[in-house]
Amino acid sequence: MEDSTHLADTAKDRSGRSVQGEVSSRGESFGSNPELAASIRILIVDDERTVRESCASLLKQAGYQVTSCGKGEDALHLIRQRPFHIALLDLYMPGVGGLDVLAELRERTPDTLAIVMTGKPTVESSIESLRAGAWDYLSKPFSATQLSILIGRASHTISVARETGQGKDTVPRRGAKAKGQSAGVVVLGDAPAFRKAIDLAKRVAPTDASVFITGDSGTGKELVAQLIHQLSRRSSRELVALNCAALPEGLLESEMFGHAKGAFTGAVQDKPGLLEAANGGTLFLDELTEMSLAIQAKLLRAIQDGVVRRVGSTTTSALVNVRFVAATNRDPHEAMKEGELRKDLYYRLRVVPIHLPRLRERPGDIPVLAQHFLVGFWKKHRNNDLTTVPTLTPESITALQRRPWMGNVRELQNVMEHAVVLLEPGTEVRPEDIPSMEGPDDMDEENSFGLGNGISDALLEAPYHEARDQVMSDFERTYLSEIIRRADGNMSQAARLAGVDRTTLYRLMQKHLVSREEILGD
Question: Which of 24, 76, 232, 266 has a CA between 20 and 30 Å from the CA of residue 504?
């Protein structure tokens, strides 16, 4: 079962720090069980003998089959002889380094879960490792708990792959499909770009890999996140959704991580956050680029360690095992260039990227989507009576396909519901029955605040300061709504257009008692 080759004598890593005390011999493995552990082969490659032996001792006590060596050249020989399920690879070694071993693993057994270790952690090295195909990244010195959590997560991923169609004694194959169909998630469309995205979502769903979804607002990013969760082994647990753009920074941190009693005014008791609520399940982080860099750093630490520390707490609050699905309507590379998205967080969450096309790029899917919404809203508003559902005429379908659909599928959904509530039973949906989503014609920019050709009588009858405050309040509310709509709900972009910071926009939203969802009509 074991092949241990000790080829390094030093007991310190290259930074000179002792790691013996950091990797103890506690035989715990978060998220695994003895039967599963006994079936998993782990390769440890590190030229630091102390690290190598400590890791091997911990994992053997947890029941894993462990093979270790101290040179990259020996690792290449070992992986050519037999496959491994998990590989712990030191990034920097004389001669053949960790990335060289990783490249060989990707070529021979691409589904081996490789974890890169280094005593010189940098954003660049973590990104390089994740880009090269590493499953995760571990910075030295690390604790026994950190290692146990990470190996436990990897074991769970292997278990999922086996139970979704793989042989018990093989390394899990990439792209294993879940048994059965998703319950409650309807995904319609045959456009090649859309089908490619959905097929990829179905392939990755049975694994624990993090997914990063991009696409314009309204293209269905949350629907794809629901599909991934329902096709996963975590479907019996919670799918927790968090819109990072909908909350100011302080509230977002408390919602995500929870808070301790007395952490701030009003914190009268301990409160778990959404990371804890999603334990064992999936956390969907919508509009990730709207999260502040400080919270991004704290989130990255929680992902790396599987440990949550609530706001105001000085101790670890909980261990969590969460699958992450993130999404944004922005170009993440542009967000990184502008310093609004951490590169290391992005590449850790972007194990599998999925991009959803705009609705106007898939006009062939519009008829089936429109019919689906027509029937669904008719059932909702007409007491489930399907005998009198209106029909779409060829002219109305053509009209729908010619629209630009800036709001994508969400806009089409709203248009069809609007039409349904005004249609008579058993009639046809004509082009004139399809509502425009533009604003009212009787309010132009010049008169929207009671000005334009003069001051309205209502304003003239009020005292000056009261009239001024009313005009300013109307202006603030209208300007706020229009700037957020123009930015398609992206609060960072809205702030840039307005020339203010996001905090100012959030304060105005609180002042006028409006939410981002109300403004966008979500």
Answer: 266
Place of tokens 């941190």: 253
Contact 507, 501 (CB under 8 A): no
- DSSP string computed for 162-210: HHTT--TTSPPPTTPPPSS--SS-------HHHHHHHHHHHHHTTS---
Secondary structure (3-state) at 104: helix
Amino acid letter, residue 444: D
More confident residue, 97 or 128: 97
pTM for this model (two decimals): 0.64
214 contacts 327 by C-beta, under 8 angstroms: yes
Q: Which phi and psi angles does 37 have, rounded to 5°?
A: -60, -40
Q: Over 300-360, what HEC string results?
A: HHHHHHCEECCECCCCCCEECCCEEEEEECCCHHHHHHCCCCCHHHHHHHCCEEEECCCHH
* First-to-final CA distance of the chain: 57
Fold of 360-433: Helicase, Ruva Protein; domain 3 (1.10.8)
The topology under which CATH files domain 192-357 is Rossmann fold (3.40.50)
- Could you tell me the CATH superfamily of domain 3-163? Response regulator (3.40.50.2300)
Instruction: Identify which of 483, 19, 465, 489 has the alpha carbon closest to the alpha carbon of residue 287.
Output: 489
How far apart, in whole angstroms, are the C-alpha atoms of residue 224 and residue 186? 10
Q: Are 392 and 367 in contact (CB under 8 A)?
A: yes
CATH number of 457-520: 1.10.10
Radius of gyration for the alpha carbons in the chain, expressed in angstroms and rounded: 27
Domain boundaries, the chain: 3-163, 192-357, 360-433, 457-520
56-65: pLDDT as tens digits? 999 999 999 9
Give the pLDDT confidence score for residue 19 in this predicted structure.
Answer: 37
H/E segment holding residue 295: helix 293-305
Tokens representing 354? Answer: 């999925």
